[in-house]
Write a structure and sequence with these properties.
Layout (H helix, E strand, L loop, with lengths): L1 H17 L6 H22 L1 H23 L3 H9 L5 H13 L2 H38 L1
């Protein structure tokens, strides 16, 4: 529960840094908290790659749906909600162990970071392609 609360607080903080309007901060915070809860749930039984992919898909889907309802670009709601999912700690330790000369540990952290980043990228891409396809079909009618 503390991790979910931290993701909510972090997303609000990054909303402030990005200059997001106050009216959008609650939807961003809810999306960040739910997306992190999805990450924790999926990570428990499917591992970090699947957890990053599914939580990124969830985050992107919720942001896209809320953006349409609020009539704002999706990125406004998606980016601050995504920030808590970024694997900054594992990236930090990758570089730390490289400079410490402990290459096996650095390699381990690097692969964790890469799995997280690629999982998130795939999750975001799937939802983006889904919505572009839906929009193209609507426009063709």
């Amino acid at each position: 529960m503390s991790q979910i609360i931290a993701s909510i607080i972090g997303s609000i903080g990054f909303s402030i840094v990005f200059g997001i309007r106050r009216a959008y901060m609650l939807p961003i915070a809810v999306n960040a908290g739910l997306s992190w809860a999805v990450y924790l749930l999926v990570n428990g039984f499917a591992g970090d790659f699947a957890a990053n992919m599914v939580s990124a898909m969830f985050c992107s889907l919720v942001a896209a749906l809320m953006a349409r309802r609020l009539r704002v670009p999706t990125v406004v709601l998606q980016m601050p909600a995504t920030v808590p999912m970024i694997p900054g700690g594992s990236l930090y330790y990758t570089i730390y162990y490289v400079f410490a000369g402990d290459m096996p540990t650095a390699k381990s952290y690097f692969f964790f970071t890469a799995r997280a980043v690629f999982g998130m990228a795939i999750g975001f891409a799937v939802v983006s392609v889904l919505f572009k396809t839906i929009d193209a079909r609507k426009a063709a009618r």
